[in-house]
């Protein structure tokens, strides 16, 4: 049930934005790995889809002030 997805993260303008997005997603139950790239604006995330949905991930990031766009 481990799955990988790519998202586009909208609204990041500095390295602290990247850290904020990584921090909020890494602490979600079911997330195994997250990496966010400021230049490409992409997030790569590995998570257990039995525990967490993409909606949950989007909500967590959007509550932090950024927007996630599904690209896979
Ligand atoms: Mo950097 Mo991001 O000062 O919202 S943390 S712009």
UniProtKB/TrEMBL annotation:
Official protein name in the record: Copper-exporting P-type ATPase
Compartments reported by the entry: Cell membrane
Species this chain originates from: Acholeplasma oculi
Membership in a protein family: Belongs to the cation transport ATPase (P-type) (TC 3.A.3) family. Type IB subfamily.
Gene name tied to this protein: copB
Residue ranges occupied by any HMA domain in the UniProt entry: 3-69
Superkingdom of the source species: Bacteria
């Amino acid at each position: 049930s481990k799955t990988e997805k790519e998202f586009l993260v909208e609204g990041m303008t500095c390295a602290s934005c990247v850290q904020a997005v990584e921090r909020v997603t890494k602490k979600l139950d079911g997330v195994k790995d997250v990496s966010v790239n400021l230049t490409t604006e992409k997030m790569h995330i590995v998570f257990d889809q039995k525990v967490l949905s993409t909606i949950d991930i989007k909500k967590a990031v959007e509550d932090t002030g950024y927007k996630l766009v599904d690209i896979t």
